[in-house]
UniProtKB/TrEMBL annotation:
Gene Ontology MF term list: phosphorelay sensor kinase activity
Cellular localization per UniProt: Membrane
Name the record gives this protein: histidine kinase
Keywords associated with the record: Kinase, Membrane, Phosphoprotein, Transferase, Transmembrane, Transmembrane helix, Two-component regulatory system
Lineage: Bacteria, Pseudomonadati, Pseudomonadota, Alphaproteobacteria, Rhodobacterales
TM helices/strands, residue ranges: 20-42, 153-176
Length: 451
């Protein structure tokens, strides 16, 4: 069984992971709104409480009638207070100060400073400043309580959100991996069916009756119906072949007998020769149609072994070199250094190259023909190129259909099955047949994926 590797991009594209991410984002948003609202409410309450305390303290100090009494009261309260928590300060108009901190004025604002040997709160202060007839009275409360409140809510947010995010993503990833493996099995089954293996089936395993199981069962049902229809068609084709074999053989025997009874001067001899040629052509067309149907139907293609594309190309080019010389055509090769090996059927691949060379000999307008084997980054390529008129771009997808012929080719030998058979052989080997402009001429390429 093929093991599917799940990369991060595949997991991110997985529906369960996306749903998990959406739920995590939704939960995080709700959590943030809820905790944020609670934090803002408690913060406002804490600030209001500090302001109320400051107002009460200020009212208690402001009742002093004289500067001396106010200075004495501020000193008494300052000695009992920690400047990191609360600051009491009175700055008289005469410059004398009382309290547990110093201050300076900047743009009309009172800026607290620590006295020598003491420290103020790092969290800052909420102050109430009142201008009296004899000086400035400052009462300030540290905002450490608000900092502690903020830290508490941040810790609460982290401890409530992070485990949920990690748990949700972990579960989503596990579900995605399980679903991705099942989707990969369905895709592998569909690829096998598309490649012609109609016996391929999806195994749902121990999965319950969910959507992927139903899709897999639908794929199996489709494959079973297609396999049954193809098998019925194959059986009909086999029956037709069996039924026509005897009549075709009899026609050939009768034509042989007719040819043997007609001498060179007999006016019926040319007619008998033409009849025999047409009978042979019908047999070849019928045989090619059977081969294409068998290959496209996923039938067995014989032994698959390690074969060298360069060796096959060189062998076919050597085989057709005499015919090319007789036609005044130069047939050359451009092969890759060293063997270019694939898994394939040597006889079928040789037939595909032979068909491409024959196609170039017939329709290449007597131009030079090059048989090449090369490697690129993604594939191994075997190509046959000529310098003829080529095939119009809008007809390149049509010439691989059975019995389709270009209008200008109807007067040349052939039956419109050569490229169709090459395409079927390519498909049976997991390759593709590409027809491209050779500027001028046609370049027919068989592209085999690298192992």
């Amino acid at each position: 069984m093929t093991v599917t590797r799940l990369t991060l991009p595949k997991l991110v594209r997985s529906t369960p992971v996306r749903i998990a991410l959406l739920l995590v984002l939704l939960f995080a948003a709700v959590n943030l709104v809820t905790l944020g609202g609670a934090y803002l409410t408690l913060k406002a309450q804490a600030e209001a409480s500090i302001r109320a305390d400051l107002s009460a303290e200020m009212a208690g100090l402001d009742i002093s009638a004289t500067p001396g009494a106010l200075r004495t009261l501020v000193e008494a309260r300052a000695r009992a207070a920690d400047p990191k928590e609360r600051v009491y300060l009175f700055v008289g108009d005469d410059g004398r100060r009382a309290g547990n901190a110093n201050a300076r004025m900047s743009d009309g604002q009172v800026i607290l400073r620590a006295r020598e040997g003491e420290r103020l709160s790092d969290a800052g202060y909420m102050k109430e400043v009142r201008r009296l007839s004899s000086g400035i009275l400052v009462v300030a409360q540290s905002m450490q309580r608000l900092e502690d409140l903020r830290g508490t809510f941040l810790a609460l947010l982290a401890f409530s959100l992070l485990p949920t995010v990690i748990l949700s993503l972990g579960l989503g990833t596990l579900i995605a991996r399980r679903s991705a493996r099942r989707v990969a099995r369905i895709e592998a089954t569909l690829r096998r069916i598309a490649a012609g293996d109609l016996s391929a089936r999806y195994d749902p395993g121990r999965a319950g009756d969910d959507d992927l199981t139903r899709i897999g069962k639908g794929v199996n049902h489709m494959a079973a119906r297609q396999e049954a229809a193809t098998e019925a068609l194959r059986q009909v084709t086999s029956d037709i072949a069996h039924d026509l074999r005897t009549p075709l053989q009899r026609i050939a025997v009768l034509l042989d007998e007719l040819q043997s009874k007609t001498g060179e001067g007999d006016p019926r001899a040319p007619l008998a020769d033409r009849a025999r040629e047409e009978a042979d052509r019908a047999v070849r067309v019928f045989q090619s149609l059977l081969e294409i149907a068998q290959l496209e139907g996923g039938g067995k293609i014989g032994d698959m072994t390690r074969v060298d594309l360069s060796g096959i190309a060189a062998e076919m080019a050597e085989l057709y070199e005499p015919a090319a010389e007789e036609a005044g055509i130069r047939l050359s090769t451009n092969l890759s250094d060293g063997p270019v090996e694939i898994e394939g059927n040597r006889a079928l691949l040789g037939q595909a190259v032979a068909n491409l060379i024959e196609n170039a000999l017939r329709h290449g307008d007597g131009s030079d023909i090059t048989v090449a084997v090369a490697r690129d980054q993604a594939a191994l390529v075997l190509s046959v190129a000529d310098r003829g008129v080529g095939i119009p771009e809008d007809e390149r997808a049509l010439v691989t259909r059975r019995l389709y012929r270009l209008e200008r080719s109807r007067t040349t030998p052939g039956n419109g099955l050569g490229l169709a058979l090459v395409a079927a052989i390519a498909q049976s080997h997991g390759a593709t047949l590409e027809l491209s402009d050779n500027a001028p001429g046609l370049k027919a390429s068989l592209r085999f994926a690298k192992a």
